[in-house]
């Protein structure tokens, strides 16, 4: 007996919530590092200006690396600062994974039904990648607003609620603002497709005769699969975070250098992910395209490894509970 798409989705959502909670400070630092940008010189009138001369002086960026980011957050807000936006992030991650696993299970079931007349038919690696990308694309259409608001809360300094942030987005950009970064998200559908396609292929190659893997086996394959996907799509991940970042207005320091006060510069607002990528290349070159790669990999591989590890165990638990419920129902009918 196998789990239904809804049951697989619930298992995946619960597993992702557990995994992301364990490594959330890495997720927060990753977002903050990826959304900081080097400002253009005053000579440039726009990002497309031919006289554009980037200013990339040492120390221009606020956060040097993951440890520096976490240290600065701790200095200002303590340990709780490392978990700013945790609840919304966990909710968003769970919803996104629930949607993805539901559509992935459904797409694979439809594919299996189409080829059920062929004995022992197994999808190729290319087919696995396509099915994963298709499921991710469908899922993004439903869950994109959650990701936009979550990213804005992580980069918001005013401690606004999710509802307030949602209202701000609607006031500034209209309903389309909730789907800001949709184009790059559609392109990034190759990320989960690479991850899950690689995972399924590695599982078939290394453990062909096992329906359920052990925790360590699932974790190891999940880490490898996610690493490959992250390295391939990191520039797109950075540009997406930059598009979805909450914009801040320029605020002058009027407190005569009172300790703890600082001047906030107006953020550069990008309209497309290609514009964001161009800015990164002009100001920071390859380093900019792969900024935050360390926390991205650490967070990504651990979350994915833990997710696969928990998910397989949760699948087993769900099957056990379903069998138990059905057995009790069967016993009740006999009576």
TrEMBL record:
Top-level taxonomic group: Eukaryota
The way it spans or sits in the membrane comes to: Multi-pass membrane protein
Q: Give the family per the record.
A: Belongs to the mitochondrial carrier (TC 2.A.29) family.
Among Gene3D superfamilies, the record links this protein to: Mitochondrial carrier domain
Q: Which residue windows are transmembrane per the record?
A: 80-103, 129-150
Q: Where does this polypeptide localize?
A: Membrane
Indicate whether Secreted appears among the record's keywords: no
The species is [Candida] anglica
The record, for Pfam families, names:
Mito_carr
Q: Which UniProt keywords are listed?
A: Membrane, Repeat, Transmembrane, Transmembrane helix, Transport
Protein name from the UniProt record? Mitochondrial thiamine pyrophosphate carrier 1
Quote the function comment for this protein: Mitochondrial transporter that mediates uptake of thiamine pyrophosphate (ThPP) into mitochondria.
Q: Provide the leader sequence positions.
A: none
Q: Where are the Solcar repeats?
A: 3-110, 123-205, 213-317
């Amino acid at each position: 007996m196998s789990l239904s798409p809804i049951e697989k989705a619930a298992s995946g959502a619960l597993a992702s919530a557990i995994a992301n909670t364990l490594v959330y400070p890495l997720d927060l630092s990753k977002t903050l590092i990826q959304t900081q940008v080097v400002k253009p010189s005053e000579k440039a009138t726009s990002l497309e200006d031919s006289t554009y001369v980037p200013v990339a002086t040492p120390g221009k960026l606020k956060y040097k690396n993951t440890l520096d980011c976490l240290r600065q957050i701790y200095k200002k807000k303590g340990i709780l600062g490392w978990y700013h936006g945790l609840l919304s992030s966990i909710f968003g991650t769970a919803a996104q994974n629930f949607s993805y696993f539901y559509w992935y299970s459904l797409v694979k079931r439809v594919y299996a039904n189409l080829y059920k007349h062929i004995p022992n038919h197994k999808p190729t690696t290319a087919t696995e990648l396509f099915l994963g990308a298709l499921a991710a694309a469908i899922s993004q259409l439903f869950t994109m607003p959650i990701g936009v608001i979550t990213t804005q809360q992580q980069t918001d300094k005013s401690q606004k609620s999710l509802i307030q942030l949602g209202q701000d987005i609607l006031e500034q950009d209209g309903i389309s603002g909730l789907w800001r970064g949709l184009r790059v998200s559609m392109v990034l559908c190759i990320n989960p497709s690479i991850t899950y396609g690689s995972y399924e292929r590695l599982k078939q190659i290394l453990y062909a005769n096992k329906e359920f893997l052990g925790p360590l086996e699932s974790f190891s394959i999940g880490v490898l699969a996610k690493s490959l996907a992250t390295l391939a799509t990191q520039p797109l991940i950075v540009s997406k975070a930059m598009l979805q970042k909450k914009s801040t207005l320029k605020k002058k320091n009027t407190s005569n250098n009172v300790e703890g006060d600082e001047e906030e510069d107006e953020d550069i607002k990008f309209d497309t992910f290609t514009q964001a990528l161009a800015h990164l290349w002009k100001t920071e070159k390859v380093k900019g395209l792969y900024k935050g790669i360390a926390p991205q990999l650490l967070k990504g591989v651990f979350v994915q490894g833990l997710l696969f590890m928990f998910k397989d165990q949760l699948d087993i638990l769900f099957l056990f509970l379903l069998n138990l419920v059905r057995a009790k129902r069967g016993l009740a009918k006999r009576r």
